Amino acid sequence: MNLKIKSLYALCISFMFTAQSGFSQSAKTKASLPEIKVSKNQHYFVTENEKPFFWLGDTGWLAFGKLDRAGIEKYFKDRKEKGFNVVQVMVLHNINAVNVYGDAALINEDVSKPLITAGNDFKDAKQYDYWDHVDYTLDVAQKNGVYLAMVPVWGTNVSKGNKVSKEQAAEYAKFLANRYKNRTNVIWLNGGDTHGNEFQDIWNAIGNTLKTNNPNQLVTFHPFGRTDSSENFHNEKWLDFNMFQSGHRRYDQDSIKTNFKEDNYKFVLRDFELKPTKPTLDGEPSYEGIPHGLHDTLQPKWTANDVRRYGYWSVLSGGAGYTYGHNAVMQMFRKGDKPAYGNKELWTSAISAPGAKQMVYIKKLMEEVPFLEGVPDVSLVVNQGEKYDYIPAIRGEKYALLYTYNGRIIEVKLGKIAGDKFEATWYNPRNGKKTKIGTFDNKGTQNFQPEGKKEDGNDWVLILKSTK
After folding, report:
1. SS3 92
2. 3 state DSSP class of 344
3. From CA 78, how far away is CA 84, in angstroms rounded?
4. Which domains does the chain have, with CATH numbers?
5. How many whole angstroms separate alpha carbon 308 and alpha carbon 395?
6. Cα–Cα distance, 414 to 63 (Å, whole number)
7. How far apart are CA 56 and CA 84, in angstroms?
8. Residue 107: its H or E element
9. Is 273 within 8 Å of 311 (Cβ atoms)?
10. Could you tell me whether strands 460-466 and 421-427 are parallel, antiparallel, or unpaired per DSSP bridges?
């Protein structure tokens, strides 16, 4: 779209008509994905027909701005094939956002004035705008069975320079709620890598507006590193579930003594006990391929081993799902782009990174058991350790799952699940293969030793299932 041939007056008139009439291109799209809602026990997610829904997310933060239509097709087809069912994305990275086709998102960088044109014909630049491309992406995601967890406006636009007022935010949220009211594959991530104790009037205005207008679309808050939405918004009615960002630093890189450092499972264990009960999950752990601590590119990079560890630590502590990330994919790095965080890999190759391929095994494992009844129970582990020796444990009525990141022996306190006997199996998080161990009496304690030497990345899940 060539903005020079359009008068600002015409653009404003177009916007006013759209906002006031409630017209929405997405309203014409037939929904094909079931709505996602909170489970009856309030700890997990289910579809509208009560089918368990395990959140396996990817961070495609800049997809709206940096991918063309072919790129959108390629990315979502790949994520479907790898088992992802949620993609986290920014609607507005910046208030001067322009997509790959040169379409600006806003008039005069004002979030209360989305730049909208009549029609959505891609072949006619005058009839295809930023928001039409968002609609197209939602359609492609829907076709691939993917839900978009969308950040309305990234947190730095609010926290730095006061570029967004409460009034503008509320008007913008009303526009979003109206445009996407008939979309069943939309989830809202309020905030965006920002401190929840700052500018709460703006975040509450966005959250309340989205939830009031579209009560069936889930809303949460994506917070700053090492913080959790529950710390500032747990009791807000607009917040349906909690999300925390466990962050990208090592234990020794943290200067804050009061947070949980790399121990992302501690966020889950804390949130699991809060009232009112709400699901929780790690929405941004350390990304595969990103330097430890983010900014020093000479530091080692986080690997597939690390993203697996964060995944199993949190999910086997009661997390309702898990979001994976890769340095190149989260910024949709293309040839000619200025790299962030030392990245040198194109997103088109990074989508096949080892960790991305292995995430599906977390989802498959949880879908094998009735995970909606899962309750974290660290008392299952007799020889509990700290840091990388930590062993999370979760159980249902007839199953228990325990995880070692480094091949430690696991001493299990038995009698915690139903039945006189149980079958034990090793599950390999790197390839999803199972190795039967044997059948045991369900009493006393029992040691289980994984194969291989004790070293980081030699990770295993111990599956215990009642034989009756």
Report:
1. coil
2. coil
3. 9
4. 3-371 (3.20.20.80), 377-466 (2.60.40.1180)
5. 20
6. 47
7. 5
8. strand 106-107
9. no
10. antiparallel
Tokens of residue 446, six digits: 């029992």
Q: Compute the distance between CA of residue 427 and CA of residue 429 in angstroms, rounded to an integer.
A: 6
Amino acid in position 40:
K
pLDDT in tens, the chain (468 residues): 443 333 333 344 344 434 433 334 444 345 589 999 999 999 999 999 999 999 999 999 999 999 999 999 999 999 999 999 999 999 999 999 999 999 999 999 999 999 999 999 999 999 999 999 999 999 999 999 999 999 999 999 999 877 899 999 999 999 999 999 999 999 999 999 999 999 999 999 999 999 999 999 999 999 999 999 999 999 999 999 999 999 999 999 987 776 899 999 999 999 999 999 999 999 999 999 999 999 999 999 999 999 999 999 999 999 999 999 999 999 999 999 999 999 999 999 999 999 999 999 999 999 999 999 999 999 999 999 999 999 999 999 999 999 999 999 999 999 999 999 999 999 999 999 999 999 999 999 999 999 999 999 999 999 999 998
